[in-house]
Write a structure and sequence with these properties.
Blueprint: H1 3-21, H2 38-48, H3 50-54, E1 74-77, E2 80-83, H4 99-108, H5 123-126, H6 131-141, E3 155-156, H7 166-173, H8 186-198, H9 202-205, E4 223-224, E5 231-232, H10 244-253, H11 266-273, H12 278-290
Antiparallel strand pairs: 1-2, 2-3, 4-5
Domain Cytochrome c: 36-145, 186-292
Organism: Histidinibacterium lentulum
Keywords: Heme, Iron, Kinase, Metal-binding, Transferase
């Protein structure tokens, strides 16, 4: 009979430890001092592909038209359905948020009311970003059209519906470390930043484990398509035999060396990449040639 109190005490201890370890990160006071530049933010916004997920599902990304970030796109995953939120500068979006709160959401995956966001929001990649780039994105978002679309709830089954557990997931899978540890040239270093951080390319191109974390041992080696149709390709040097010039041209025009054309989600990626300076596309190509090949 004496084992019962000890068992209960152990259970409480484990639960308490889990509660502490899963706590959302506090917003750093230093974020409040950041000042964004909307013009610089326009390019960082394109590199980060924000419109690809948050634009009105019936609209198309057009470099000449400011996107309406109404959200509403539905994403089916093995863990449930996520719906992209409204992040336009309206009260229904992020209009009432401070820039510091927006930066904290992108860098740490924590909402203004101190709740974890699910990693369908690629903050695991954005956590490596320069905070100035993130506050610039926030400043650019302030300049975009408003949308009064109300956010729709996510549809998750137990236990994935317990958002607090995401804190433990973050401890396992969110790291500020670069996957390509050594960048031999400034160009590769810039490409690493764009691919591993702002561009969050690995979120689609790298396979995931049972808990949804990226398998960094198979970095950029391809993965099942989240839509359920086919696979996202392996773009490591072991399989992608395109030259750096071929990669640059593809990111600019969408045309492959075989005169095929980008389709699916890559359509919007190419439209975003085409807005960047040519030097950024060249840096991405150099990075892709520098990462280890994975068969």
């Amino acid at each position: 009979m004496r084992l019962l109190p000890w068992g209960a005490a152990l259970a409480l201890l484990i639960a308490g430890a889990g509660w502490v370890l899963s706590a959302p990160a506090r917003e750093p006071e230093t974020h409040a001092a950041l000042v964004g530049d909307p013009e610089a933010g326009r390019l960082s916004f394109a590199a980060a592909g924000c419109a690809s997920c948050h634009i009105d599902p019936e609209a198309d990304i057009d470099a000449g038209v400011p996107p309406v970030l109404s959200g509403g796109e539905r994403f089916e995953t093995a863990f449930g359905t996520f719906v992209a939120p409204n992040i336009s500068p309206s009260p229904q979006g992020v209009g009432d948020w401070t820039d510091a709160q927006l930066v904290h959401a992108m860098a740490a995956g924590v909402s203004p009311d101190g709740q974890h966001y699910y990693p369908a929001f690629p903050y695991g990649s954005y956590s490596r970003a320069d905070l100035q780039d993130l506050v610039d994105i926030a400043a650019y978002i302030r300049t975009l059209p408003h949308s009064d679309r109300e956010n729709e709830p996510r549809e998750l089954s137990f236990p994935y519906s317990i958002a607090r557990t995401v804190g433990l997931w973050k401890r396992l899978y969110v790291s500020p470390d670069w996957v390509l540890e050594t960048a031999d040239t400034p160009e590769i270093e810039r490409g690493r930043y764009l691919v591993e951080s702002l561009g969050h390319c690995a979120e689609c191109h790298t396979p995931r484990g049972a808990l949804g974390g990226l398998d960094t041992t198979r970095w950029m080696a391809g993965a099942p398509n989240p839509s359920g149709e086919g696979r996202i390709p392996n773009i490591t040097p072991a399989v992608l035999t395109w030259s750096e010039a071929d990669i640059v041209a593809y990111l600019d025009t969408g045309f492959t060396p075989d005169f095929d054309v980008a389709g699916g989600s890559m359509t919007s990626v190419v439209k975003n990449m085409a807005q960047l300076p040519a030097s950024d596309r060249e840096a991405i190509a150099a990075y892709l040639k520098a990462i280890p090949g994975v068969e």
